Amino acid sequence: MPPEESTGQGAITVAHLAPELTRGLYRDMRTARDLDTEAIALQRQGVFPAYVSVRGQEAAQVASATALDPARDFVFPTYREMAVALAYGVEMVGYMATHRALWHGGLYDVMGSRFGAINAVVGGPVPHAVGWAVGERLRGDQGVAMAYFGDGASSEGDVHEAMNFAGVFTAPVVFFCQNNQWALSVPNERQVAGGSIAARAEGYGMPGVLVDGNDAGAVYAATDEAVQRAREGGGPTVIEALTYRVEPHSTSDDPGRYRDEAVADRWRQRDPIDLLRTAMLQAEHADEAFFATVATEAAQRAEQIRDGVASAPEPDGSELFTHVFRETTEELTRQHRTWQEEVEL
Amino acid sequence: MTELIEHEHTDAAVGPRTVELSMQQAINRALHTLLTEDPDVLVFGEDVGALGGVFRVTDGLQKEFGDQRVFDTPLAESAIMGMAVGLAMNGWRPVPELQFDGFAYPAIDQIVNQVARMNYRTRGAAPMPITLRLPSFGGIQAPEHHGESLEALFAHTPGLKVAAPSDPAEAYSLLLQSVRSDDPVVFMEPKARYWDRRPVQLSEPTDPIGTSRIVRPGRHATLVAWGAMVHKCLQVAELAAEDGVELEVLDLRWLKPIDAAGLAASVARTKRAVVVHEAPLTAGLGAEVSTLITENCFRDLAAPVQRVTGFDVPYPAGPLEPQYLPTIDRVLLAVQRTLEY
User: Fold this and answer.
1) For B82, which of A128, A138, A332 is closest by C-beta distance?
2) Contact residues on chain B for A124, CB-CB shorter than 8 A
3) S-S: B246 plus which of A86, A292, B17, B218, CB 3.0-4.6 Å?
4) Residue B51 — very low, low, confident or very high, per pLDDT cuts 50/70/90?
5) What is the pLDDT of residue B7?
6) B28 to each of A129, B205, B260, how far by Cα in Å?
């Protein structure tokens, strides 16, 4: 399924999923959309220095995260995984705090959430997922590591090293690539030799799955299968969820300089939330009253998170020094003291 | 390990826990102790399993502790360090080996951007109790990229601690200390001293992290060194003593944090200091040491701090190596300069 073929493809189905599950998917996708909209507004208002939108990628993110077990799995994100965080149960004011630049890596509890720190070196966390997964197997536990990355990150050496390690160690990892077709300004054809990230899996001795990233039901099924296989000792999987970055790379970007917005418009027409809604109505998983309720609740939750992050206190300057080491050094203590004296002047 | 047991001394003068070991064997012993005392310790890297590492530092460990605790990885330094991060996040205490110092460069992103920062980035939620064992420095006429001195790079990176032992006993206790630390430590093993055998007291570390030690007391000048250069400075001190010059040799051993107080105490006594390292001069750690001495001992100093270092050139091939590394004569000349200032 090369990118253009999937553009504007037709309806999706959720008949294979439980109604309760699809309602959960919809609720989280809708909430993520509203929160995304609020975040862009916060950037326009100058509260966020910049923001990276997940619009159009909600199905890929929410449905894959929903296939995980937040009690025993562990997510390794990059920086465009807001809807994953939301669906996985991360405390969202703490998550969004990174976009307000309050703290690199977010202010949520990374270990308690089992959701790694936000990371801008996009290939960097992928080998972490493999290490975590190998550690899980060594202890005899059943958790699965989920590495999120994009088509741009798929060019990073770390991603290839990580896939090879995972294959060699039969590690319980799912490599989940959201191919949104743009690595900032560089399109897939200038980024992904051979045209497919999923196809690379074969070379690393693991299954590779290409899935319609705007089809929540398909993403869920593909991820669920990969997660179960990993959990049962069947080793890693690469999933490539083909989607599209309908927004600019970030609020600082100007896509008019490098792409034809008509293509983006076609993808906007194939909105994953609209697709899911139609499929749910068709499968009789929900009625209009459900969607109306979700619309209200999602908007409320997004506003609460927005207000929470906008009013969150800035970290104390002392925190510059607090977390550098577990056991700090005399020199750092001296610098901390000097800083304190200068602040008090 | 049988070889080690043969050398076990029981004679009261040397002490019951004293054995004659090379540094490479002492490190092996420390890893053995660590793997025994803490089930979360994992040793991994390229060829560390069946082969026992290219320097045989991990010899026998896989056989004794199994291929779950001591294992080979594919050849990819960045993934080795990235894997260490993930293992640490899953509660393990990783002790990865990167085969040679020059091969740490491919892993710099993981070391600097990930290992060093994860505790900070997560505000203490995800500590990185990782000890990177890195065969370091020159002196063995190795191929290119097999003899580098990266201490300034690591010491400059916030979040890392850096140790460099100078003899087998130090290697044993410093490694125990490094691995037990909840902070990431780059443990730079001086390759040129791996085979240096001497009696080792297998003792628990007593000095805190970040303390230096006086290897040889003296009163006319302080030689500051770490790794293999400590041995070189001891040779210099021996020769100088023949001329009545008593040189103090200070083994810095922790390159981050640096023992500023220990340096100051020594130089306040001797009034003169010569810093010796293998790394190139410019922006080398000698500059930091020299500045610390100047800041803390300005009024005590009888002469400017001297530096004897490698040159600002890429690490040279075998025949030129002895001309690149600080020699006894170069250190003696620096001592002369500081005494005659």
Assistant:
1) A128
2) 82, 109-110, 113-114
3) B218
4) very high
5) 44
6) 29, 16, 31
Angle at A184 between CA A128 and CA B107, to 5 degrees: 30
Question: Would you state the structure tokens that stand for residue A135, as one six-digit string?
Answer: 């550690």
pLDDT digits (tens, 9 = 90+) for A205-248: 999 999 999 999 999 999 999 999 999 999 999 999 999 999 99
ipTM metric: 0.96
Report, as an integer, the average pLDDT of A289-315.
97
Pairing state between β B221-225 and B247-251:
parallel
Closest CA in chain B for residue A76: B86
Shortest alpha-carbon distance between residue A261 and chain B (Å): 36
Q: What is the DSSP letter of B43?
A: E
Is residue B47 predicted with pLDDT exceeding 70? yes
**For chain A, where are the alpha helices, taking DSSP H only?**
3-6, 19-44, 58-66, 82-88, 92-96, 110-113, 125-139, 157-169, 200-203, 216-231, 261-269, 272-282, 288-311, 319-322, 330-344
Token representation of residue B282: 């410019």
Chain A hits for B181, Cβ within 8 Å: 326-327
Q: Do B89 and A138 touch (CB under 8 A)?
A: no
Amino acid symbol at B289: V
Alpha-carbon gap, residue A240 to A42, rounded angstroms = 31
- Report chain A residues whose CB lies below 8 A from the CB of B183: 325-327
Closest approach of B303 to chain A, Cα-based (Å): 25
List, for residues A37-66, the tens digit of each pLDDT value: 999 999 999 999 999 999 999 999 999 999
- Residue B247 to residues A17, A67, B186, B233, B303: CA-CA distances in angstroms? 79, 68, 29, 9, 15
Rounded CA separation A17/A14 (Å): 6
Task: Look up the pTM and report it.
Answer: 0.96
Decide: B280 and B311 in contact? Cβ < 8 Å: yes
d(CA A211, CA B315): 50
pLDDT band at B17 (very low <50, low <70, confident <90, very high): confident
